[in-house]
Design goal:
It is built from nine helices and six strands. With 215 residues, it is an alpha/beta fold. The chain has a single domain, classed as 3-Layer(aba) Sandwich (Rossmann fold), CATH 3.40.50. The chain has a six-stranded mixed beta sheet. The longest helix is centred in the C-terminal third of the chain and has 23 residues. The chain is globular and about 45 Å long.
Length: 215
Amino acid sequence: MIQTARAYAIQHNRPRNLNNLSKRSTSMIIALSGTPGSGKSTVGKKLADHLGWPRYYIGGIRREMARKRGMTLGEYNKLGETDPSTDREPDEYQKKLGETHDNFIIEGRTSWYFIPHAFKIFLDVDEHAGAERVWKELQKENTRNEAAGLQSVEDVLQSHRERKHSDALRYKAYYNIDAYDPKQYDVVIDTTSLNPDQVFNEVLKTVKKAIDKRG
């Protein structure tokens, strides 16, 4: 599993635009989560590039595991409702990562739980706005193959609802947690009326404040 997971860690060897963050002695792990279409991946990539930190994408690991079984992510999530190994493998990986590494960004529904000392950020969005965003991305040539049979915004919305339902069942059964409960996070940001740059700026402000408090 380690080899698979490393494929989703983006290394940044030359930190850029750090705005003095790199000069702080305080170390930090940033755990990103949120509702579908809230902009987690976009923000995670921009933040990793800005800080020069590696980014770990648990969703990418799960998609690769599903692909190797010849399944869509939705089918794999459904399997996970009765087969805990579909979650346990990536979850154990991120737990170990939090115990052995520092100064990285991790994007995953359960990252806040398995890395409790992380700075936890939750991005929320109106479900219809989230579905619209994802649908627009799926229309782009380079993401067309990810549509998995989705033919409309309504299809995307339904797939998001099914994913959240599956997440809720699995995480409650295996860990007795609610990954969508905003009370589990240090910061909650509603991205419904924000563009990607605005979301990034809001997240960056919260990160700077957290570093100031820890420093």
